[in-house]
Amino acid sequence: MSHRYEIAHRIAALHPERDHLEIYQLSAGLDFPWDYTRALEFALLRTYCVPSISRLLAATGEFRDRPQRRYDDTALLMAEMAAHGYDSPRGKEALRVVNRAHGHYAISNDDMLYVLSTFVYDPIAWLDRFGWRRLHDNERLAAFHYYREVGRRLGVRDIPGGYEQFQSFKQAYEEEHFVHSAANREIGDYTVNLFAAWFPPFLRPAARLGVRGMLDEPMLRAFGFDPAPAWVTRLASTGLRTRAHALRFFPPRRRSVLGVARHNRTYPGYPDGYEPSDLGAPPPPAGLPPEFRRRP
């Protein structure tokens, strides 16, 4: 069992600000890769509870026409930055792709700041509930410092300077901006159906129910989803905690899986033969309303 915690011991010996990239790579790539992936999926779903975000996504038509590709592009571009570092050649190229995609649209800085905050705090909240070990404080702070640096390179302004301040911003933003809208429901339905499509057809109704069972009350209200029966939530939570308990007896992972997606649905075999510049959203559709276009 002592070997199981060797990565945690390495993280404890590092500095959360100076070594934030290394800590994030160890945590997300070795100790909790599956959990970070699931948590970031739900983090993105959470951002669609903000009408100004969901209206833009609905206007582009991308979630209607290419939901899997939009999911895969986002996941892979973020993984490139984490796996290689945001200042590496591949990391810089991934940042350019994201900035180019965002540059077409009128996106408020506060919405960008909120999305960034979900990448920090939603995985932490997930791991507090379902992680096979407790997070070290260095991991929490490193996630903040890592995404603060990513955010700066994405042109996000006014990122709070401390962990608690950024967390308070996130909480206040959700209290003010989580309101129901038709666009929230539209993008929420597309996303839940995307998650369900990863399962065989006969399991998809159960998958949709399971996703609803993992959403908190503010998200359910903002999407206009009916809550899942209480037993669904209990079953999902019990299953995830049972998985976490079993993982304590597994040997430590020796090879990071950050940036490795060989079973990717859009890009089979990724990263072999692909560059970050091959990813990213197409230009805005010709019929995009002017209110969503960024002014030169």
Mind explaining what this structure looks like?
The relative contact order is 0.18. This protein has one domain (2-250). Helices cover 62% and strands 0% of the residues. With 296 residues, it is an all-alpha fold. The protein starts with 5 loop residues before the first helix and ends in a 49-residue tail after the last helix. The longest helix is centred in the middle third of the chain and has 22 residues, at 109-130. The chain is globular and about 60 Å long.
Give structural attributes.
14 helices; mainly alpha; Peptidase; 0% strand; 296 residues; MPAB; MPAB/Lcp_cat_dom; globular
Summary, kept brief:
InterPro entries: MPAB (IPR046366), MPAB/Lcp_cat_dom (IPR018713). By secondary structure, this protein is mainly α.
Q: Secondary structure elements and their pairing?
A:
Layout: H1 6-12, H2 20-31, H3 33-47, H4 51-60, H5 62-65, H6 67-84, H7 89-102, H8 109-130, H9 137-153, H10 163-177, H11 182-197, H12 204-213, H13 217-223, H14 230-247
Helix pairs in contact: 2-3, 2-9, 3-8, 4-11, 6-7, 8-9, 8-10, 11-12, 12-14
Protein name: Peptidase
Region (Disordered): 268-296
InterPro entries: MPAB, MPAB/Lcp_cat_dom
| Low-confidence parts | none
Cα gyration radius (Å): 19 Å
Overall pLDDT: 95
Taking the alpha carbons of the first and last residues, their distance comes to 58 Å
Give the helices and strands as they follow along the chain: HHHHHHHHHHHHHH
Number of domains: 1
In one word, what is the shape? globular
Strand fraction equals under 5%
| Count of strand segments | 0
Determine the structural class based on helices, strands and strand pairing: mainly alpha
Helical content class: 55-70%
What does the largest sheet look like? none
Number of helices: 14
